[in-house]
Amino acid sequence: MIHLRNRGTCRPLLFATALLCGVAPFVAHAQSPYHLITQWKVGGEGGWDYLTADAAAHRLYITHGPRVEVLDTDSGKPVGAITGLQGTHGVALDAAGKYGYISDGRANAVVVFDRSTLKTVASIPAGTNPDGIAYEPVTKTVWAFNGRSSNATVIDTKTQKVVATIALPGKPEFPVADGKGNVYDNIEDKGEIVRLDAATKKVTAEWPLGCDSPSGMAIDRAARHLFSVCDGKKMAVVDANTGKVLATPEIGDGPDAAGFDPKNKVAFSSNGDGTLTVVDARKSSFPVIQNLTTQKGARTMTFDSANGRVYLATAEFGPRPAPTAQSPHPRPSIVPDTFTVLVVGR
Length: 346
Known about the structure:
Blueprint (H helix, E strand, L loop, with lengths): L14 H16 L4 E7 L6 E7 L4 E6 L2 E6 L5 E5 L5 E6 L5 E6 L4 E6 L5 E6 L4 E7 L4 E6 L4 E6 L4 E7 L4 E6 L4 E6 L4 E6 L4 E7 L8 E4 L4 E6 L3 E6 L5 E3 L7 E7 L4 E6 L3 E6 L7 E6 L6 E5 L4 E6 L25 E6 L1
Antiparallel strand pairs: 1-28, 2-3, 3-4, 4-5, 6-7, 7-8, 8-9, 10-11, 11-12, 12-13, 14-15, 15-16, 16-17, 18-19, 19-20, 20-21, 22-23, 23-24, 24-25, 26-27, 27-28
């Protein structure tokens, strides 16, 4: 469903009316809701995970089973793909604009590719099932968080070599870097955030969130706020210096990713129930200002700072397989050739 904003008309019958008409555009801009602008059909088969926007290059990287799709963020047209992978989860980009890093979970590796040619240049062994991945700019390192071995693999981007493996207190999920030498990661099975020092490569704090199964995370680097999305329809807003939980606004059900717009000071949660929750980060209470209907399954997203748009991935679903002892909660089947990117903006 495409949500269109209402446009009012101003008739100068009264001076007061004219004044109201004069301020209405400003109010509408300040509170303008997000809406579905368009959608791009990607097609193909298989599941997907995180998306990453390269704002400077106007590219969108989408992990899609054994490949990474690359789209133009303005037109949605395919730029190319990184192939020959096994089971992709996330993409991190270096600050120099030269290399990208893919967490290939099934291969237990981080795959390095050239961003100009999309050709693979290295495959670096990681822990078991590398999932969330982030670039840390102070030390120029890439951090891959390994979901099944409960540790983090740290890669020096100058040498493309592993320089550390750091034990974690539980199963890691999505990480963020604060640009000041700290990396934060959700620990899903303990309901907490860990803070890691990128220079010493050590865990420096463990902070309980008070919510279950945190997955996606975003950061407001200026205000030093973290946004972790959890099961139970909660977003935990956390002070990145002290670990104090500042608020827990209610979000949609089944979230898996989060984003932050530093210009408009809003945080996003993409939810599997087919909603995108928008939270006002200017206010100390962090109120929800919108729950936009998207599409069922659109639970991963990325924010593009170049155009202010949110990109979400989903597909159409078939019947859910019968539960088995090995898979007591099976996911529904994905209808082939229905993989789609939803584009949301103001």
